[in-house]
């Protein structure tokens, strides 16, 4: 009787430890309104306002929220974002650590209100979280409502739930998805590693149990071979089902958001109306530049996605390091100085010996490079 009581007590204790959740300090949680009001927070690429305690972001190219400097222990390994999205899209999370490292996580965004739980323990194992950046893509010009952000240390049951959610999260649709997809993982452990571990454990256990369960005695090697074959079969079926699930979810998203639309409309759907406006300008440049001539952006900041996008959508017009024409898009800091026949950004000269070729708008134009005669 005492043994049974002890067992019940131990099971009850284990259950409480499993489901128990540690309270999180107030400094590790923010409402949407406090994100807007606290000093040090920044909202980039978007107009913002506060409505009903939520931070409302009017989607531009990619609304971005930057935190002030923080000091959150690495043990607070789950970041929870409560967000209302206008459409399917992608969330990008950049987390800076006290050691100076930068961790990047991506997650699928679905329409409506959803709580996104992102596990950071596999990347931030020690030290502290020093700050973070959240960026949202694909809102198609709608409004995002950021209701809250918090970091917390999960209980075992909560951690398993978060890891399972990450494991079953479909692949993020991106350029490389056309060729390959990321291997699913359960926290720091990838699916192939889990399956190989299962095969080893299953093979050993089954080869030992098989003779006893069947009541037959025989060569242990035969049972080992059968157990290994069955283990590989189960692992292969599991891998196929998980990967096929991924393709089904990708197909559902693509059918809902992209099916039946033109290439330009698909780009606009995924990147918002600002990208659609930029592609209209790119089309203007492509039609304006004479056949056989090359182009380049007059100003190309490091990591500028628009310049990379233009290289593709300008084809068959080639982007060259020694261009015949330069383009400027929606940049109020760049202007043409007719007195010196140069393009300037502030007081700095970005291109000499040029002349206006065609204007698209007040802030966007194509300039011809004046070649020296031989």
If you had to describe this structure to a student in words, what would you say it looks like?
With 374 residues, the chain is an alpha+beta fold. It has three domains: 24-169, Galactose-binding lectin (Jelly Rolls), CATH 2.60.120.430; 189-257; 272-369, no CATH class. Helices cover 35% and strands 30% of the residues. The longest helix has 38 residues, at 220-257. Residues 15-26 have low confidence and may be disordered.
- End-to-end separation in angstroms reads 105 Å
Regions with pLDDT < 50 over 5+ consecutive residues?
15-26
What is the name of the CATH class of the largest domain?
Mainly Beta
The largest sheet, given as strand count, sense and whether it forms a barrel, is: 6 strands, antiparallel
Number of domain modules: 3
Number of strands: 22
CATH superfamily of the largest domain: Galactose-binding lectin
CATH topology of the largest domain: Jelly Rolls
Q: Beta-sheet strand percentage? A: 25-35%
Provide the structure class: alpha+beta
Number of helical runs?
8
Write a short abstract of this structure:
The protein has 374 residues and is an alpha+beta fold.
Task: Name the descriptors.
6-stranded antiparallel sheet, 3 domains, 30% strand, globular, alpha+beta, Jelly Rolls, 374 residues
Write the layout of secondary structure elements.
Elements: H1 2-19, E1 29-31, H2 32-37, E2 42-44, E3 47-51, E4 54-58, E5 64-66, E6 72-73, E7 78-85, E8 89-97, E9 102-109, E10 112-119, E11 128-137, E12 143-152, H3 156-167, E13 185-186, E14 189-190, H4 191-214, H5 220-257, H6 263-271, H7 273-288, E15 294-297, H8 305-313, E16 318-319, E17 325-328, E18 334-337, E19 342-345, E20 348-351, E21 354-359, E22 365-369
Parallel strand pairs: 15-16, 15-17
Antiparallel strand pairs: 1-12, 2-5, 3-4, 4-12, 5-11, 6-11, 7-10, 7-12, 8-9, 8-11, 13-14, 17-22, 18-19, 19-20, 21-22
Helix pairs in contact: 4-5, 6-7
